[in-house]
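Hi all, long-time lurker, first post. I run a small reading group and we've been trying to get comfortable going from sequence to structure in the token notation. Rather than ask abstract questions, I figured I'd post a concrete chain and ask someone more experienced to write out its structure so we can walk through it together at our next meeting. Sequence below, copied exactly:
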Amino acid sequence: MGLGSQKHCFELGAGITIHHFSSAVSTLGVDSTGSSTLILGHAILGYRYQPLDGGFFLRAGLTPIIGSGVFLPWPHVGLGGTF
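-- Answer (accepted) --
Happy to help. Here is the structure in token form:
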């Protein structure tokens, strides 16, 4: 979901990621000795600059992954152009 003007926009989003492991694994700070399922939530908080008439495009923000005692603050940046 984007909030703001057509040129400058604040982006918000959310979702879940489901991981199923069928053997011993150690990932994202979680240790498992057998079959297990890990459910992680994530959010999107960011800014987007995109002029309607084309040109330079910028997108930047933070997409944290949260769950099962895990907090990973993943930053993101996107650059590009339209003509």
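A couple of things your group might point at:
The mean pLDDT is 84.
The chain has one domain: 2-82.
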